[in-house]
Amino acid sequence: MNNDLIYALAGMAVAALVTWWIARRYYEKASGDLVAEAKELRRLNVLMLRALESAGITEFARDDEGNIKGMVHRSSGNLVGAGTSISVSGTVTSNDEKS
What we know:
Layout (H helix, E strand, L loop, with lengths): L1 H53 L4 E4 L5 E14 L2 E12 L4
Antiparallel strand pairs: 1-2, 2-3
């Protein structure tokens, strides 16, 4: 009876180690796949943003290394009436830096 208990405990320990090893390998591979996919998606996003900027649809604020850090919003307007005219223009730059 004592040997049966020892064999059962040893079997459970071996099963736990095998399960842990297989799960660890699976999650390490999945983590590597996720990193690779995130890198590719980041590359594609930058490519699309550059295309939007090249087409003149939008303009982006960049850091010293050329990385996109925000968006530049330009606006202007004119108000004309009763012999008076007012022109206003402005630029707002939004960025993702925390203050």
